[in-house]
Amino acid sequence: MRTYAPATTATVLDRLLEEPSLAAAVLHHEVIPERPPDVAPFPDWLDERIVAGLRSRGIDSLYRHQAEAIEAIHAGEDVVVVTPTASGKTLCYTLPVLQALADDPSARALFLFPTKALGQDQVAEFAGQAMASSLQVAVATYDGDTPAPIRSAIRTAGQVVVTNPDMLHSAILPHHTKWFQLFEQVQVIVIDELHTYRGVFGSHVANVLRRLLRLCRHYGSNPVIVCASATIGNPAELAAQLTGRPSRLIDRNGAPRGERHVLLVNPPILDVATGARTSALTHAQRWALPFIRAGRQTIVFGKARVAVEILLTGLREALREHLGPRSRIRGYRGGYLPTERRSIERGLRDGEILGVVSTNALELGVDIGSLDVSVLAGYPGSVAGTWQQLGRAGRRLEPSVGILVASASPVDQYVIHHPEFLLERSPEEARCDPDNLHVLLAHLRCATFEMPFEPGEVFGPAPADDLLAFLGEEGHVRQAGDGRWYWSSENFPASEVSLRAAAPENVVIIDTTPNRPRVLGEVDLFSAQVLVHERAIYIHESVQYYVDRLEWHERKAYVHKVDVDHYTYANRAVTLKPLDVFAEAPATGGRRVHGEVMVASLVTLFKKLKFGTDENVGWGPIDLPELELQTTAYWVTAEAVISPVRGVGGSAGSAHAPGSALADPAPRRLAPEAADGLGDPSASWRRDDLDVALVGAGRALQAVAAVLLMVDPRDLGLVSQVRSPHQESPTIYLYEAMPGGVGLSERLFARHDELVVGAAELVASCSCESGCPACTGPRLDPGIDAKALALRLLRGLGAAATRAPSAPIPARVA
Ligand SMILES: [Zn+2]
User: Fold this and answer.
1) What per-residue confidence (pLDDT) applies to 208?
2) pLDDT for 588-606, tens place per residue?
3) Residue 317, C-beta contacts closer than 8 angstroms, at least 6 positions apart
4) Torsion angle, alpha carbons of 603, 606, 611, 612, to 10
5) Three-state DSSP class for residue 191
6) DSSP helix/strand/coil, 53
């Protein structure tokens, strides 16, 4: 074993790249040159005390993006600031807020962070800045941990209130009369980590903001809204969806940085037949270890708590002899006490801690200073998240290294084979749908409780009267003689709405580990079937829980904390029926459609799979009733692929019994791009082959869709039908796994061509022989070439011949 021998980051990296087994795993090595700072002077109007405070902290000028943001906010413009981690984004909003308070101490500001921990960090940061400026500012967090006696003081005297959307929704808005000082005087609303407000959560938060702005109007205030986000494809659009107002995009980063190396690494395949790979955890450790040995500060990210444990144990084991105290390598994850986390953060900042293994708990804005090396064991699920984790390494003057090690999941494999996806552009979109009817109605109830609606008053897309009349039929809302709509129920509507779930009926998850059981969270019924069935391992903020009991009719799941080496996967049997078509267009090989569907879901058994290898280590039955879900979907039909000359009105294969050939010898279309030995897409199909092709192509489409739309693959359900009873043709459906959907399927419909091409690339570039879990899904029958069949179908659907397997891009950009 090599001993602890200090060396520079660049030297260690060069040495690693000389080792053939590691070098062979590198698919891409990008060198991002160092960049000098782009600065601007402090604006004339900035209060002298604030300027003095900045100078006392060593800040003598602003970066370009800070100056631009501050100027715009000062002029009353909404802005969205999009710059990388550690670029001084926070100053963009703390300075205008300090200025407002310096001008008028009765001014108020509201800061929203997605989690409690981030909010608490922000209070310390803001208080430090205020103190340096010799300004007396009452800044406080208002969250679930705030003690009752302090709450009333914050309500009346808190000048800067730091909270999260859940508290705003359930504790602040419904009690607005107690908060009148805030609502009357609020001048700035800050929404940080904007990119986390997407999907169902984002749709809810957009409606919470509608309620907030409605109350501000009532109290006569007109605050500026400042959003800050990690890099995503559509920041201004997301900000507009969330706030309902246009905002100015500020994305010219003026912060300096040293040279950066970004490596995309694919662990070697062990068995070509099954596609089994070296686990991302083992491989990540091989890259991290030499840097730590050389005394370079290194962070390793694992996706779950158990991954963190495996990495931590492995690294400590390998280092124990020559590195001094074990505490120089630490773990960091959800479930740690705040004091413990603070001590780790401090140790990282002052260099006492050399290595840290973390879940994405450290991904968001927590301040740990800048490290030398960041190694990601697995793709974090979004480009934004990847850059936040890679961005943990980034010295101002010295080179830094970021390494993404792919797992065997199709999503990871797609990303690792598309370096341009991470490096050149940010095509992934964060979206929400504030007008989802379930979500809109839930918040209309809350808004009516907060304040009666005037006749014709707009809430969201249109005047709310029709929806209020609908709520009136339920008996919760009543129209009075003056035409206004009043809340007329004993119920407290906000307590019945969870911002983290789509449907009104949720299963509440109760953690029985502590002496006094506590509510851990909620999941909607559809997700509950697969996530919290009895004996499931439920993962919450990277902590594992075992589900002891699920009381389906009571909508309660009882869980306790565990630490196990496996997770559970429940098989959902789904039947799907289209209800309505919203949009339809011809596409190569068939049609693409966006519409409404009814999904019936039955879950009957689960598997236990080992982390890292996905090895099956057991199973169990699930006894739950069938559920129906009405939602939106995108689907693609392939009638012209299997029978190229038949028109829509033809009797497309109506006589085919199951198992028979689907297409008879019809005239072949010219398909020059397919003459590559993998099969002519327009040749006739055997029914069994078509079945395999649809499943394989569907899996690849699902993975690419999840990547492009920045969602968990589980948010998009997959159904394929060899001969859909409704479409009369082979069809692949991707449906949104939440009632009503949140606009994902509409985007998939629009990006159809990209999806088909991306799916074909994913399958073609996989280094397996004939299909594997990383591309077309687990292999069912070793005799079937799922890879060739899926590719043949995708080419028939318009994917041009894609590059051959094992053609990595070893380019080293200088
Ligand atoms: Zn494969």
Assistant:
1) 97
2) 989 999 999 999 999 999 9
3) none
4) -70
5) strand
6) helix
Does residue 755 contact residue 652 with C-beta atoms inside 8 Å? no
**Residue 681: which of 766, 525, 791 has the closest Cα?**
791
Q: Please give the pLDDT value at position 326.
A: 54
Give the mean pLDDT of 77-106.
91
Q: Report DSSP letters for 575-595, one per residue.
A: EEEEEEEEEEEEETTEEEEEE
Q: Which is it for strands 108-112 and 160-163: parallel, antiparallel or unpaired?
A: parallel
User: Could you tell me the two tokens for 174?
Assistant: 């419904």
Please, are residues 565 and 586 in contact by the beta-carbon 8 Å criterion? no
Neighbouring residues of 680: CB distance < 8 A, sequence distance ≥ 6: 668, 671, 674, 792
Question: Residue 493 gets which letter from DSSP?
Answer: G
Beta strand segments in 1-68, E: 26-32, 39-40, 62-63
Distance 363 CA to ligand 1 centre (A): 30
- pLDDT band per the 50, 70, 90 thresholds, residue 458: very high
In this structure, the chain runs to a length of 814
CA–centroid distance, residue 761 to ligand 1 (Å): 11
If you ran DSSP here, which 8-state letter would residue 804 be given? P
Cα(461)–Cα(541) distance, integer angstroms: 34
Side-chain half-sphere exposure of 46, counting CA atoms within 13 A: 25
Of 168, 246, 231, 232, the closest CA to residue 204 belongs to: 168
Say how far apart CA 380 and CA 392 lie, in whole Å. Answer: 14
Q: Are 716 and 704 in contact (CB under 8 A)?
A: no
Measured N-to-C along each axis, helices 786-796 and 687-709 cross at an angle, to the nearest 10 degrees, of 70
> Measured in angstroms, how far is the CA atom of residue 524 from the centroid of ligand 1?
33
Q: Which of 172, 176, 165 is nearest to 116 (CA)?
A: 165
Instruction: Give whole-number Cα distances, 185 to 100, 108, 156, 219, in Å.
Output: 11, 5, 11, 9
**Cα–Cα distance between 756 and 749 in angstroms, integer?**
11
Instruction: Say how many Å lie between the CA of residue 707 and the centre of ligand 1.
Output: 17
Burial of 686 per CB tally in 10 Å (0-12, 13-18, 19+): middle
Which amino acid is it at 121? D
Tell how far CA 814 is from the center of its chain.
32
User: Is residue 392 a contact partner of residue 85, using CB atoms and an 8 Å limit?
Assistant: yes
293-330 residues labelled b (16+ CB within 10 A) or e (exposed) = bbbbbbbbbbbbbbbbbbbbebbbebbeeebeeeebbb
374 sits in which H/E element: strand 373-377
pLDDT at site 234 = 87
Rounded to the nearest angstrom, the gap between the alpha carbon of residue 309 and the centroid of all alpha carbons in its chain is 23
State in Å: Cα 624 to ligand 1 middle: 34
Closest CA to 374 of 294, 471, 302, 463: 302
Q: Are strands 543-551 and 537-540 parallel, antiparallel or unpaired?
A: antiparallel
Other Cβ atoms within 10 Å of 811 Cβ, number? 10
Whether 644 has a pLDDT exceeding 60, the answer reads no
Please name the residue that has the structure tokens 């299963």: 507
The DSSP 8-state label assigned to residue 325 in this structure reads: -
Whole-number Å distance, alpha carbon 274 to ligand 1 midpoint, is: 8
Residue 42: both structure tokens together: 């402090």
Q: For residue 327, what pLDDT is reported? A: 59
Ligand 1 centre and the CA of 410: distance in Å?
A: 8
Alpha-helix residue ranges (DSSP H) falling in 180-251: 180-185, 199-219, 235-243
Helices (H), 143-302: 148-157, 165-167, 180-185, 199-219, 235-243, 280-293
The burial of 35, by beta-carbon neighbours within 10 Å (0-12 exposed, 13-18 middle, 19 or more buried), is given as middle
Looking up tokens 């596409």 gives: 587
272 CA to centre of ligand 1 in angstroms: 9
Average pLDDT, the chain: 84
Q: Could you read off the pLDDT of 721-779 as tens digits, one per residue?
A: 887 666 678 999 999 988 888 888 998 999 999 999 999 999 998 878 888 878 888 77
621/344: higher pLDDT: 621
Which of 575, 419, 502 lies closest to 738, judged by CA? 502
